[in-house]
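B., you asked whether I could sanity-check this one before it goes into the benchmark set. Here's the sequence:
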Amino acid sequence: IGKGLAADLAVAELRALGATGALVSIGSDLRAAGAGPHLDAWPIEVEDPFDPATCSAAVTVDDGGGATSST
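And here's what the prediction gave me:
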């Protein structure tokens, strides 16, 4: 809960300072809001824990958060 809250607060502060979008990752928790790097949703890839060179899942997020765990 703590890392997710910290990511939420960091994104809120960045947006309050004028950022059109922000993506904050703290450990395995992330929060995205606003415009991504190409003025659309943020592309998020989840690394395969058994093969770090491989993406096991991919999503786009325009306003939300997520967390992963290898345990």
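One thing to flag: The CA atoms of residues 31 and 50 lie 25 Å apart. Otherwise nothing jumped out at me.
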